[in-house]
Structure formats: C-alpha cells, structure tokens
Amino acid sequence: MTAPRGKRLKVVLYNPQAVFFTMPLALLAVGSELDPDIYDVVIVDARLDSDAENTLLSHIPEALCLGVTVLTGAPISDALRVCRSAKLVRPDLPVVWGGWHPSMFSRECLSEPAVDVTVRGQGEETFVDIVGRLAQGRPLDDCPGCTVKLADGTIRENPARALTEVDKFRAHDYGLIPVERYYELKGKRQLDFISSQGCNFRCAFCSDPFVYGRKWVGLEPVRMAMRLKELWDRYRFDDVNFQDETFFTKAGRVEALADRIVESGMKITWAATMRADQGIRLPEAVWARCKQSGLRRLLVGVESGSNEVLKRIRKDIKIEQVYETAEKMLRFGIAGHFPFIVGFPEESDEDIQATLDCAKRLRSMSPDFLTPIYYFKPYPGSALVIEAVARGFRLPETLDDWAQFDYVAGEPGPWVSPEKFERIERFKFFHELAWKKASRGRRILQKIARYRCNKDNYRWPVEMLFTRWLVPVQTLS
Ligand code: B12
Ligand code: SF4
Prior knowledge:
alpha/beta, Rossmann fold, TIM Barrel
C-alpha cells in the first residue's frame, strides 16, 4: 500500500483486556516512534472501551497494519479473538504481535493464521522498519528483530536487532491515549512512566534475562526530568509510577533525577522498583534526596526467606539485605511492597516456613509494608522452567493452551501440595487482616487475627471462610 498524497497512513494498535489500568506503555513506545507526519496512530485499549472489538474493526478497512501487545496468559485469548475478527474483515491486513509472549514464542505465535509477524524484544526500531516496509510495499523477509511468515507459509526467524539506547527514541506521546480516563479508572492522578528497558540480573524464575539478554538501557536523567516536567505541565499528575524492571540500576541516574524533580518545583510523589542489594549500597544522602523528591513506595522483590532458595533461584541477594533495606525504608518513611514466591521446584517445608517467617517479620515492621505471596508459575523463558522441562515438566503447547495459562489464580502448580497450599492461604489471609488499616467494624476481627499470627495458629479459619463467602477472591488475568 502506498500513501495517498497528504493523507497519513493509519496504524492501529491494540491492548488486550486486563484487570489493572496501567497506561499502555508498550504501545505508547512503539506508536510514538512512528513519524507523526506520515502515520496516524490509533490506540484501542480494551480495558477502557467496552466495545473495543467494534471500535477496532471500524479502523481496520483503512489500516496499514494492526499491532497488538501480548502478555502470556489471558491477554492471548483476547488478542486472538480480535485478530481473527480483523482478518475476517480484511484478510490482507498485516497483523503484528509484540511484547513478552511473542518475544519468547515468536515461531509458535505464527502458527496462528491471524498473526503474520512477531517482534522479539525491544520494539521501537523494528516496528518503524516493519511499518515503513509495509508502506512502501517492500517484503519483511529480511527485517531484523522479527519473525515472519513467508508467502509460501514457511516461518523465518530474522536475526535479532541490537538493543538501542532509549535516549535515541522520540519522547512518548501521551496525546495518543486519553490520560484523564486512566486517572479516572485508577481513581488517582497517577502517570505511568517507563524510564528503562531490560535488567542486568539473572533471576532464574524471570523471563527478562531471556528477552533482554541481561542488558539494560535507561533514559539520561536530565532529559527524563524535562520530559516529566512537560508531562506534569500538561497532565497535572500527583504521582508517577515508574514501571521499570529495576529502576535503581544506576544510583547516579536516580540521584540526578531526584535533584531535578526537587529543582523543578513539581509537586509529586513517585513509586519504583529496587533490589535489596541496591538498597544497601545506595548512599544515605541519595535515600534522603529521593524521599525529598517524593519517593513514597518501593517494590523490593524478596521471593524467598531462605538464603538457600535465593541462591538456587540466582536472585543474588541475601535475606539480611532485605531487612537492612527495609530498615532504611522505615527510617525514611517509605512504604514497601515485598513480593514472595512459594512453590519453587524442590522447595522444602523449612524453606517455605522461612518465607512465611520473613513475610511475618516484614509485615509487622510497618502497616505500610505489604508482603504478597505468589505461587511459582513457570514463567516461560526462565532458567527454572528450562530445567523443569528437562526433567519432564510439560509447558502448554498451543497458543490456545497458553491463553488458559493463569499466572495468579487456579492451581498453585505441581510443586505445592494441597496441604501446603491451604496453610499458605490461611497465613496470607490472617496476616493481611492483622496488619492492614482496618475500619472500626473490623477491629475485633483484626485483634483475633493478630493473636493468631503471634501464635502462628491458623486452625479452624472460620473468619476466612466467612469473608471469602462474602467477597470472593478476584483473579488477575
Ligand atoms: C504494566 C505491567 C503489567 C500490567 C499490564 C498492563 C497492560 N498494558 O495491559 C498488568 C498490571 C495488568 C500486568 C499484569 C501481570 N504481569 Co506484568 N508487567 C507490567 C510491567 C511492569 C510493565 C510493562 C510495560 O509497559 N513495559 C514498558 C514497555 C515499553 O516495555 P515492553 O512491554 O517490554 O514493550 C516493549 C517490547 O516488548 C515491544 N512490544 C511490546 N508490545 C508490542 C507490540 C507491538 C505491536 C510491537 C511491534 C512491539 C511491542 O516493544 C516495546 C518497546 O520496546 C512489566 C515489566 C516491564 N518493565 O516491562 C511486567 C511484566 C510484563 N509482567 C509480567 C507478569 C508476570 C505479570 C503478572 C503475572 C503479574 C505479576 N505477578 O507480576 C500479571 C499477569 C499478566 C496476565 N497474563 O494477565 C512479566 C512477564 C509476563 C509475560 N511473560 O507475559 C513482566 C515482564 C514482569 C517480570 N519481569 O516478571 N503487568
Ligand atoms: S526478577 Fe527483577 S532483578 Fe531479577 S532478572 Fe527479573 S527483572 Fe531483573
């Protein structure tokens, strides 16, 4: 297809349904990189639009291509549904999938007739290349960074594209999305922002090392602060949620950003991710500056309370570092999310107990410290899964099977017995109840829960059964 003179080419991007209202940063990243003089980018977010499929279909007749961001699990089934509908309307429409699932299963995704191209890893340059070739009617057969279905139906995995410094990309154009609508749905004026891609670490349960090859690229702090200020002037947010995998990868970058935020006069708070080892290395002055610039909450992945397990999953932290970082957070008045994972293959009862003890200790340090406990699910692409598969564990095979794969709800995985599952669920329930800020009506329940937690007594959990009966647990995907 070639561009009619003066008319911009429409590129349609789709974000599948999900339960949280994080701004669609992946689509903002790839959409903003397209030259706005040539392309008219339309983002359809199924989380905002109850009739997203029809909205999408209304753009399809004149679209140059459809791009979809796809996470593993339930988003796949929504992505499949809309791509199949779009192909019914326009069988010749090029459909491009990018994001975490296609990055790991680029060939497998192409077994679906409604998908033509999959993009692996960082997507900005690859998408610009794909869209440019489509606009000029050139083939994608040798386009780096993507896997393509050739005219004869065979699949070709083109060479990877080197990771590009994110400073080279255009600033994300938040004008492509209805920012106010996200604020409304989140119930707060919170901007999502991504300042880096990838991660240098090697955790064996995580897909990042597989997708980004342990590389990390981040925005230069002065430029980042300028972009934030421009966005603040335009969208008046109260809070920024940095969605980076490891925001504190470079302490100097964070310090410079904090300095600029203070100087800019922006009245904001912010939240980000930090590893426990980064926390203890961070100089006190930088902690103080971050707090002064508005740092309100850190997410510090703990994963396990057992140093033995931490070693096995290659987390490269010690549990003592978690406590030390938590102490600093307490001292600076910074809230914390400390997520754990239980049910790793071959995890012993003692290991699980160590995790529960650690969660208990952190939770009781501050009502602002949360300690969510997840069950290990085989994150595709991770080293632990590759080991488990070598020992006979079977991953889903088809795209439809992957669509049924639920990271959060459902069975806890073959490595957690029903008895352990029950014990952990009771622990989670009573600790949540014991430490969260409770309304007046719940104070008695909270007292009982604290008593139970202090005594580690979770037998006859009538409070739990009653509460679950009143408010069924929500699943994530
Ligand atoms: C925001 C977020 C979410 C949001 C998703 C919001 C949405 N848009 O629908 C919510 C809260 C719903 C969510 C849920 C979960 N998430 Co999440 N999430 C993230 C997070 C923190 C940021 C994603 C993001 O916007 N990144 C910024 C963009 C710029 O980067 P990107 O997504 O990688 O996109 C680049 C490329 O992938 C590519 N690309 C992406 N899409 C497309 C599309 C096209 C057309 C093209 C060409 C290219 C392309 O180009 C982009 C620019 O380079 C990431 C971690 C991270 N920092 O990426 C985890 C992450 C994606 N989540 C993850 C997980 C495990 C989960 C959960 C299980 C929760 C949990 N326990 O952590 C659930 C369940 C997901 C599900 N099945 O429903 C994993 C990977 C999951 C997977 N294999 O799919 C990640 C990587 C975290 C991790 N290291 O474990 N998540
Ligand atoms: S879990 Fe976090 S620190 Fe570990 S590899 Fe993944 S993103 Fe990096």
